[in-house]
Amino acid sequence: MIKALIIDDSAYNRVTLSRMLASSDGIEVVGTAVNGEDGIKQVLRHKPDVITLDLEMPVMDGFAFLRWLMANRPTPVIAVSSRANDRSVFKALELGAVDFVAKPGGRVSARLDAIREDLIAKALQSGQVHLRNVAIGKGRVTPLAPKRPPVDSNAARELDLIVIGASTGGPPAIQLLFESVDLLPIPFVIAQHMPAAFTRLFAERIDKLTRYKVTEGADGDLLVPGHVLIAPGGMQTEVVCEGDVLSLRVTARSSGDIYAPSVNRLFSSASESCGARLMAILLTGMGDDGADGIRLVKSQGGKTIAESEESAVIFGMPAEAIRTGSVDEVLPLANIAEAIERLCFCSPPVEQSL
User: Active-site residue among 160, 193, 273, 326?
Assistant: First the structure.
């Protein structure tokens, strides 16, 4: 049984979240708290396996609680966003929260039950979280790896596109990756499992913190070198090729889609459009989304990388891709930037004197 603690200043939300989690046979709600200060007492008393955390609370807010928790008793935390345009969830992820759910309305929402399935799935996966890797990413301000020599401007470009897939633990990992990788004349497209509205906020955040131009993708967007497009949440994003021009096709999710955006859908379409001139990278995440896409990329001659268990917050998605036998390199996050730069270019042939 997963022992869950709920911290929320709204009595309605505490009751509703408790009922949601308790409806799962694998979860026991061991306590509730009205703010961060009360939450500390309940953590010490109940020693929960997972915590749902409201971020905006009186006395002690969710951010102060997270700082205390990660310093004293690291525990998987699912932040509960009170707004559909709440940038504070990314601050919570930086401070150590492993994931978040978005309320479908205001602070007290009669439609809160809409997040039930998502919340239960994330609570159940808390046992697979590598808390050490959450702590490594928390508040990092130093470079991921020693500074590398600049990319050889005379090298020939090997790739037309790089695609990246991620889920739980992905936002901090993606941020750290783009803070580390050199500005490359190659477009990127990212499928990060994230609710609608938050992908635009995530794109704006990465745009401000890195050297890359980062925006949320839209139907018909051209793939421009040095530009990163984030697949919009709640939609399906594919790469299409017309002539020698690459662009995005963004469509509504169907009733049978498990993930939107789907990493498999992005990787497979990119492979069909780019063939061997594609690199696919699978980062931390729960489940198996991306494994079939990685297999197709490899079959078409593309390059494939998966994050190793050494750094992944959850090793589910990378592990499933590795099991296909289609991953070229399995690397900790700190080494992926170097691999991208190494695999993107080939050095020009050395002229031999007669």
Answer: 193
Question: pLDDT, tens digit, for every residue of 140-189?
Answer: 434 444 455 555 555 677 899 999 999 999 999 999 999 999 899 999 99
- Length of the chain, please? 354
Mean pLDDT value of segment 101-122: 72
Catalytic residue among 289, 292, 308, 311: 289
Tokens of 34: 């009205």
Active-site pick, 126, 167, 308, 326: 167
What pLDDT sits at residue 329? 97
Is residue 122 within 8 Å of residue 168, measured between CB atoms?
A: yes
For residues 203 and 216, give the distance between their C-alpha atoms in angstroms, rounded to a whole number. Answer: 6
Q: Establish whether 193 is a catalytic residue.
A: yes
Going by C-alpha positions, the residue among 173, 224, 205, 215 that lies closest to residue 335 is 173
| Residue keyed to tokens 């794109």 | 203
- Which position has the token pair 């500005």? 183
Give the predicted TM-score (pTM) of the model.
Answer: 0.89
State both tokens at 240: 């299409």
The angle at the Cα of 301, spanning 299 to 304, to the nearest 5 degrees, equals 85
- Reply yes or no on whether the pLDDT at 274 is more than 80: yes
Looking at residue 85, its pLDDT comes to 59
167 is catalytic: yes
Distances, alpha carbon 347 to alpha carbons 128, 157, 281, 335, 341, in Å? 41, 9, 22, 20, 12
227 is catalytic: no
